[in-house]
Amino acid sequence: MASSRFDGKVAIVTGGARGIGRAIVEAFAREGARVGIGHSGRSEDAAQEIIRTVGKDRAVSLPGDVADAKAVKAILDRTISTFGRIDILVNNAGICPFRDVLDVTVEEFDRVQAVNTRSIFLMSQGAARFMKDHGGGVIVNVTSISGERFTDPQQLAYCTSKAAANMLTRGLAVTLAPYNIRVNAVLPGTIPTDINEDVLARPGVADAIIKQTPLKCLGECGDIASATLFLASDEAKWITGTLMVVDGGVIA
Ligand SMILES: NC(=O)c1ccc[n+]([C@@H]2O[C@H](COP(=O)([O-])OP(=O)(O)OC[C@H]3O[C@@H](n4cnc5c(N)ncnc54)[C@H](O)[C@@H]3O)[C@@H](O)[C@H]2O)c1
After folding, report:
1. Ligand 1 atom having least distance to the Cα of 221
2. CB-CB contact of 110 with 156 (8 Å)
3. 135, 162 contact by CB (below 8 A)
4. Is 179 a catalytic residue?
5. Nearest C-alpha neighbor of 88 from the set 190, 236, 191
6. H helix intervals, the chain
7. d(CA 141, CA 18)
8. Distance of alpha carbon 208 from the chain centroid
9. Residue 81 annotated as catalytic
10. Which of 158, 161, 211, 237 is catalytic?
11. Can you tell me the mean pLDDT for 72-79?
12. At 47, is the pLDDT very low, low, confident or very high (cuts 50, 70, 90)?
């Protein structure tokens, strides 16, 4: 049988039970990796459905809040006890509440930073401690074009968190390079998932985004999965610290 790009590799994908994360999990599984499916705890049924599809020796459910240090340790420990290693970490979990700046509370603002940014620090630090003693590894952060360009008055907390996530990507790339750990980010444009279902359902919103998009369509979860797998693969062995925009040309 022909070998696949990720044969023998173990990948963790946070927020892996739904949306973009699910497409990444399924792509890794198709290409030979064993996968840890991170999720907040509310997506156990969805995680189990993926496990039934890819095979129960090839995937494990990893419930836990990625903003919480103890939960992160449990996610990493469970992966190592199940599969023996961590080669690839995809920090994809995220939240995007829509709130006017005059209404957003301190708690809401802090929660967005914790889930979208602190989680990347916690997961990456924990995974890197393992990877450094086992020959290296790869980290891919799913951030957003909203970290590079302020996209919506109701997304102040979100854009701020994604800008920090992009800087974390660059900083981690430089500081983890001596341990043979590459770190890159994929910056999606608009892709219909649970995160933006309500907003895209408002009259005219999807059409307006498509109009601003040079390639004249919204993205698909698989578009982000393809870019993520490329950055996680050996084809990208000299790429670290890159922010790869996948947005149909919006930022351009
Ligand atoms: N869909 C888009 O248009 C778009 C655009 C740019 C960036 N993104 C980013 O892509 C990533 C995936 O989003 P999506 O569109 O698939 O949305 P989604 O809502 O379908 O997925 C988000 C996932 O994150 C998980 N999650 C949320 N909070 C968590 C927590 N505290 N602990 C663990 N898991 C948690 C959820 O369980 C869910 O599986 C997010 O980081 C998002 O910001 C999405």
Report:
1. 16
2. no
3. no
4. no
5. 236
6. 19-30, 44-54, 69-83, 106-113, 119-132, 156-176, 197-201, 205-212, 221-232
7. 16
8. 26
9. no
10. 158
11. 98
12. very high
Q: DSSP readout, 171-235? A: HHHHHHGGGTEEEEEEEE----SGGGHHHHHSTTHHHHHHHH-TT-S---HHHHHHHHHHHHSGG
199-237: per-residue pLDDT in tens?
999 999 999 999 999 999 999 999 999 999 999 999 999
Would the CB of 165 count as within 6 Å of ligand 1? no
Amino acid residing at 7 = D
Copy the structure tokens of residue 212: 């601003």
11 lines ligand 1 (CB under 6 A): no
Q: Which two tokens stand for residue 250?
A: 């919006």
Q: Whose CA is nearest to atom 40 of ligand 1?
A: 94
**Would you call 2 exposed, middle or buried from its count of C-beta atoms within 10 A (0-12, 13-18, 19+)?**
exposed
> What CATH number should be reported for the domain whose range is 10-246?
3.40.50.720
Atom of ligand 1 nearest to the CA of 96: 43
